[in-house]
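the two lines:
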Amino acid sequence: MASAPPTETHPIQDATVLFAGDSGDGMQLTGLKFTMATAQAQNDLATLPDYPAEIRAPAGTTYGISGYQLHFGSEEVRTPGDAVDLLVAMNAAALKVHLRRVRKGGTIIANADSFEKRDLELAELDSNPLTDGALDDYNVIEVPLTSITRDALSDTDLSTKQKDRSKNMFALGLTLWMYSKPMEPAMKWLDQKFAERPAIRDANRHVLKKGYHYGETVEAFAVRYDVKPAPMDTGTYRAIRGAEALALGLVAASVKSGLSLFYGSYPITPASDILHELSKHKNFGVMTFQAEDEIAAVGSAVGASFGGNLGVCATSGPGIALKTETIGLAVMTELPLVVIDMQRGGPSTGLPTKPEQGDLMQAIYGRNGEAPLPVLAPGSPGDCFETAYEACRIATKYMTPVMLLADGYLGSGAEAWRIPDPDTLPPFDVNFATKPTDRTMVGTNGDRKFLPYVRNDDTLARPWAKPGTPELEHRIGGLEKEDRTGDVSYHPENHERMVKLRAEKIQRVQQEIPPTEVLGDADGELLVVGWGSTQGAIEEAIERAVDGGKPVAGLHLRHLFPFPPDLGDILDRFETILVPELNNGQLVRLLRDEFLQPCVPLNKIQGQPFTAKEIEQKIDALLG
Amino acid sequence: MADNETKNDTPNGTKKPALPLQQLDADATKKPSGPPSGTKKPDGPPGAKKPAGPPGSKKPAGPPSGTKSKKPTMPPGFSGDGGGDGLTRKDFQSDQDVRWCPGCGDYAILSTVQRLLPDLGVPKEDIVFISGIGCSGRFPYYMDTYGMHSIHGRAPSFATGLKSSRPELDVWVVTGDGDALSIGGNHLIHAMRRNVDLQMLLFNNEIYGLTKGQYSPTSERGKITKSSPYGSIDAPFNPVALALGADATFVARTMDRDPKHMKAMMRRAHDHRGMSFLEIYQNCNIFNDGAFFEFTEKETKPERALFLDDGKPLTYAGGDRGLRLDGLTLQAVDLTTGRWSADDCVVYDETNPELAGLIGRLFWQEDLPRPFGVIYREERPTYEELLHTQIDGITERKGEGDLDALLHAGDTWTIQ
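prediction for all of em together
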C-alpha cells in the first residue's frame, strides 16, 4: 500500500462500487448521489439497492445492513455488476455481510472506528478482520470515518449525533475522488435538501469536501480511477429507477389517452414507491387513493374504470392474492384495469425486500374459473416506462385487466435512461360509446336498449359506455353475461361461448406484439429465453458467450401471456433452450406446455438477482 | 347459554334468550316491558318448512310474483309516480324479471326507490347503483340506470373509486347485513370515515338469505339457523351504532313495511352531502319471517317503534309514552298518569352527537323502543371534494402538467 504522491489516475472501462452500513447510516442516499455523479459524467450505469425489511434494525448487527451497489462504465452496462471493485463498509457487520461480493484484489474502505470489541460482538465476529489476516487478498484502506467527521465539525454547534449523521458524506466525497467524479451534483442536492436548515447543509457540504480532499492528502491511495463517458445513442438521458419509470409510464398513458389516471393503492413493499411517485403528480390530474386494504385498492380502480378513467393499482404477491377476486370481476365485466405486481420472495410474507419471479403462474392462472388476461413484464428499470404505457394501451383497447410483473430489483434499481419524446410514443386513442348506434342497440322507440357486450370485430372488445352517457344505461356485474346483451345468463351454451370469447379476445392481443428480437447467433445451437428483471444478466452472459465464439442466442419476453406469435418458430430453430428464472421454474413450464419443447431450467431462488457469470457457466455446461 | 336446548322447544327460543322467560310470556301489546307476541319465532326445526307468520300479522304487501307485468301492489299513502323531468317510475324499471322470492321485503324497497328517483331531478344517466353479493346484490339489475353488481362486501370500494373520479354522478350503494357488516365491514367503516358522498341502503334482514339461511352479523344471540342448530353464540351488531362509531355523517333507520317513512328517509339520505347510511329493516319471509314485526306491525309498532322528529320531544305510542333522561340514561315514561308530560321528554336534535349516541345505541333493551328516522347528521367536507380541491390547488400552483417536462425532471445529460 505504500506509494508516493502525486496519485496516478488510471483509465478503466467499468467499476462496481458497493456502499454498505447500518440502515440508519444513509447508504441508499450515498449510493444514489454517487449514481447521479456517474450519470452526470455520462457513464452507462445500473444499480442494485439491497436493504433489510427492518426499518431501523439494531445498529451494528448483520441483519440491519443496508447496501447500495452501482456498476458504471464506458461501455454498455447491463447489470449492477457481478463482483465488487470497491466496498465501503461503515462497520464490521457491513464488511461481514458483503465481503463475499468483493472480487479478490478489490478495495475495501473500512470505517476503522467501527471495529471495536462491541462492534465485533454485534457482528458476531470472533476476531477483528482488519487485523486477523482475513482481508489479505484485498486492498484495505482503514479510515476513521466517525472520528474524522466529528473533528471536521468540531467548531459547529451540532450534537454528536448530528455530526455522526454526516459521515456518509465523507464516504461519498472520498469515493467520488477515487473515481474522479464531480462533487457538484451532490452539492446541488444538499443545497436544495437543506435549504431551510443551513447549519446541516453547511456541515454536510464541509464533510463532503473533507472526504474528497482526504483522498488527495492521505498517502493510502496509490491510484484513482477514471471511467470515460460511454458511447451512448444521442439523446437526453437521466438516471431512472424502475418505480419512477412505471409511474411516469402511467402518467404518459394518461396524458396521451386523455383519460384521468386513478391509482388505488395500499402500502406494500416494494410497490409503495410507485404510490409515492404518483402522488407527487397531481397537477396531471392524477388521483391517488390510499385504500383501507388491497381489495379496496383494486376495487376503487375498477370503479374508476367503470367511470371512464384509467384505473390502475400496484402491489406485491400477497396483495395480488387479495385482489384476485376483483381482478376476476374485471375479467367478467370486461373493464380496463392495470395491476402491477412488484414481485418479492414468497410464499406468504416471504422476503419483502428481495426480488423473485415467483408470481408468473399466479398472474396467468391465479383466479377462479377461466379468467385469462394479458401479462407483461419489463426487463430493465427504463423498460418499465414503455411496458407500463403498453399495459394501459392494451387494457383499454381490449377492455381487459392487464398484469405487469416487475420486482423490487427493477423498482429500486436505476439505469441511464434515454428520455423519449412524448410525440413518438405509440398512439393511444380511446373511443367511448357516446351515443346509441344501430350496432349496439336493439328494440324500437321507447324500448330501445343498449347492448354492452356487442364486440369489436378486430379486438373483440366490448364498448366502453361510461355513466353519464344518456341512453346507454346498462348493468354489469360478476354473474355470467349473455352474449351481446350482457344480461345475466345461466344458459349452458352461452357460458361456454362466453368463456371462449373472453379467451379469444386475450389471444388477439398477439396483434399488438412486434416481431421478437433475437440477440447473438441467430443460427446457433442454444437459445436463452428470459423474462423480467433478469434481462441484464442474461444479455451480458450471451454477449460474453458470443464474444467467445459460442453458438448462443437469446431473446427476452415482454409478453408472457399471450406469447408473441413468432415465438414457436424461433424456438424450433434451436437444439437447446435454456430458461433462467428467479423461481423454481415457471416460464419453463409454460414454454414446455405451449410448444412441447424440452426446455432446460436454470433456477435461483435466493432473493438475489442472477450474475451474468452464473448464466454463462450454465451455457458452457450445456454446450459441453 | 346452558339452557339453549330447552329454549329450542319454545316458540321464543330463537330470539333474545338473554331475556327472562317470564318476560317473553308477558302480554306485550299492553305492557311495553317485553317484546310483543309479534316477535315470536317460527315453530319447528330451522329450514324444515316455510315458517308460519306470527299471529295477527299480515303478509308483506309486496308483489306475489316477480314478473314485470304485474305491478306491485303498494300500501295506501304511497306516492311518487311523476317527476319534474318528466321521468316516471317506469323509466327506472329495467326489462329484467325481478327474481326475489314472492313476499320479500326487497320489493317494497325497489318500488320506493323507483318512485323516489323521478322526484329527485337527477338525470337518469347520472345515477349509478352498486351492490355487493346477496339478495340485495341483485338490485341494480332491476334498475334502468347505470349499475354494477360487484363482489361480496366490496361495493363501497367500487363506489368510492367511481364517485371520487366522477363526483357529478349520483352513486347509491345497495348492500345487506352479511355483505356490509361481515365480509365488507372494513370498506363500510372506511367509506364512512372518508365521507364519500354516497347513499348506502343497508337491507337488514338479520339472516343470510341467498345462501339459504345461516345466521348473520345482525342475528340475535341464540338464533336457530342451519349453521346454528343449537343457537348462535355470536353477539349481533347494531348497524346504527356501528355507523356512529365510524363517524358517518348521516345515519338513519327505516323499515320496508312503512314505505312512506322509507321514502322520506331515502330522500333525506339523498339530500345529505356525504356518506348517508340508511338501515332498512327488511323482512325475509322465507328464512327469517317476522324478524322485525314487533316494530313494523300495527299491533305492536306504536309501543315498539320510536319515530324521531327533529326538534320534537321523543314520544311514541300515540303520545302515551316518552323518553326522558335520568342522568345519562334514557328512561321510558308513561305520559298518561299525569306524573310526566311531553315537556319532560328529550327534545331530539339530530345534529347532537351525544344524543345520537344514546338513541343510536337503543337496541335490545326490553323496556325501550327502537328508534327510526334520522338519528344523526353533520356537515363535513366530502372525500371527493377534498380530493379535487387538492388537485385543483396543486394544478393552479404548479401549472397543468407538462409530460415532456416531467420526463426531463431532475438531472439530465445530453449525448450529441
